[in-house]
Amino acid sequence: MAILGNIIKGVIGLKDTFSSEVVHTEAQREVLIDLLKKAKETQFGKFYKFEELLESTDVQKAFANAVPYFDYNKINDQWWHKLHDGETDVTWPGNPSYFALSSGTTGKTSKRIPVTDEMIEAIRQAGIKQVFALNNFDLPADFFEKEIMMLGSSTDLAEKDDHLEGEISGISASNIPSWFRGYYKPGIEISQIEDWDERVQRIAERAKDWDIGALSGIPSWIELMLQKVIEYHKLNHIHEIWPNLQVYTSGGVAFGPYEKSFNALLGKPITVIDTYLASEGYIATQVRPETDAMQLNTDNGIYFEFVPFKPKYINEDGSLKNEAPSLTLEEVERDQDYVLIISTVSGAWRYLIGDTIEFTNVERAEIKITGRTKFFLNTVGSQLSVNKMDAAMRELEEKFDTTFPEYTICAKRGEDDEFYHYWYLGSELQNADCEAVAKALDESLKTANKNYKVARSKALKGVKVKVISPELFYDWNEQNKKKGGQVKMERVMSEDKFKEWEDFVSEA
Where would I find the GH3 middle domain in this sequence (predicted)? Predict the structure, then answer.
């Protein structure tokens, strides 16, 4: 009998019984007021007169009117760079203990995003919320005695001046509580290995020593790790070595594009739970099995705003125009795309993290990630978001009985000086009929998106497809020093970047 597991499950159930339901709109007002109070004596708080904002009858509206939007480049150039020059109390009291390094999916150089001790605590509290939410998923007691494989970036953080630097998954893993370390795999020693391939090789070698009950990480890199373990031990599927694997916690990107290829590595179905951890904070987590939507962490160090995702509000580089209106949680509607804006205990203010979301349940503050502002393809009016592209991939998988876990696209003029969408699709499909795939993709997008259909009847001449091995996408990321950890493949490329990509594929 799983005695410890029953105790843990009982505690989780008891916590759930006595927890009061969060009123998300009220929690958000309280979070904003708390942020403004704590930061009012900072350089940023004085410049934007936080003290006066706190005296407003409508603090949320006053805040939105007083403080402009910031993306990373803007807030770093105007404010965060001071932290590296030795200044203190810049956008948050004191100095951050960490900087999260993130090149994202479009940046050429690493961003250095402040991570304060308050943010570490907020991430920890959000993680506890996720653990308690497991009570809703009807897992057996023995699950709570199994080990958890967390595949993120290296926990061997670099020391620089008075702080540490690394990717957010490595920072988070380096701060796991002592009581959890017995459950945490691959363990501190392997997690500190910087080279991703070497780390995965060590995981494969040690896999038989562990009783893994849950996996956590970005889908593409979890898949590659599972493939390595299966290959190393000559298995048919991962459950032959980890028979008690029951849960996968996905994060960072939508799981849908990877579902079919991921399930092919399993011997039996498992529970998939979506989470949303960005370099700037723990945004949301799935708390119930009836939906794959995630609940915003509204009471824990992050204040959210939402800008309607419309081309007229977005600059060409993906940043927001100053006149773009923002909505509070009280004002949003279901099934509308919004640009996500956050203000945090790490001193990010009205900050564009680059993701777009939609609400599936406003009262519960439940969302889905729909794409990236920079990955919105609006050449000649086609208005394609990542979720529409992902949905098209799922249709292609059914039609051609294969998987398309990776893809990238560029809109550019062809040799006839007409606009085309050029797609590269990652698949193990042998001898693919690219013209047939292109036709099916085109028809799928026409059906799903009226703007795309209109564009195809006018300025968008057609669709061109090349099917390549998914390995080339991972090799591309490795060449760009973006393998493993929090890395996500760019879905939409500029013409310059796409030329580099095509040269890379040709040489490979």
Answer: 298-362
Taking the C-alpha atoms of residue 427 and residue 404, their distance in angstroms, rounded to an integer, is 5
Name the β-bridge partners of 214: 148, 247
Compute mean pLDDT per 10 residues along the chain, 508 residues long, and list them. 45 50 92 97 97 96 96 94 92 91 57 90 85 81 84 70 74 68 81 85 95 88 92 96 93 77 93 88 91 92 94 76 92 92 97 91 92 62 71 87 86 81 86 87 83 76 87 79 62 82 85
Q: How many CB atoms lie within 10 A of CB 251?
A: 23
pLDDT digits (tens, 9 = 90+) for 455-498: 777 778 888 889 988 888 888 877 765 555 556 677 888 788 88
CA distance 213 to 199: 20
Q: How many CA atoms lie within 13 A of 106 on its CB side?
A: 20
Q: Above pLDDT 70, what percent of the chain?
A: 87
pLDDT at 349: 98
Residue 301 contacts residue 276 (beta carbons within 8 Å) = no
> What CATH number labels 377-507?
3.30.300
List all residues 6 or more positions away from 108 whose beta carbon is below 8 Å from its beta carbon. none
| DSSP label of 94 | S
**In 3D, which of 94, 9, 131, 31 has the Cα closest to residue 365?**
31
Q: Strand, coil or helix: what is 199?
A: helix
Which pLDDT score, from 0 to 100, does residue 314 have?
78
Please work out, in degrees rounded to the nearest 5, the angle formed at the alpha carbon of residue 354 by the alpha carbons of 352 and 356.
105
Give yes or no for a contact between 307 and 327, defined as CB atoms under 8 angstroms apart. Answer: yes
**What confidence tens digit (pLDDT) does each residue in 420-464 have?**
888 899 888 878 888 988 898 888 888 877 777 877 777 788 888
Q: Give the integer Cα–Cα distance in Å for 426 and 132.
A: 37
Instruction: Please state, as a whole number, how many other Cβ atoms lie within 10 Å of the Cβ of residue 279.
Output: 22
Which are the contacts of 414, defined by CB distance < 8 A and separation ≥ 6?
A: 420, 461, 464
- Supply φ then ψ for residue 172, to 5 degrees: -65, -45
What architecture does CATH give domain 1-373?
Answer: 3-Layer(aba) Sandwich (3.40)
334 DSSP 8-state letter = B
pTM of the shown model: 0.78
Cα diameter, the chain: 71
Q: Do domains 1-373 and 377-507 have the same CATH topology?
A: no
| CA-based nearest residue to 343, from 22, 12, 119, 56 | 119
- Distance (Å, whole) CA 487 – CA 477: 8
Answer yes or no: are the C-beta atoms of 354 and 278 closer than 8 Å: no
Cα 275 from Cα 131, distance rounded (Å): 12
Alpha carbons 180 and 417: distance in angstroms, whole number: 59
Domain locations along the chain: 1-373, 377-507
Q: How far is CA 129 from CA 290, 300, 368, 450, 453, in A?
A: 17, 10, 18, 40, 43
Q: Which two tokens stand for residue 288?
A: 């119930």
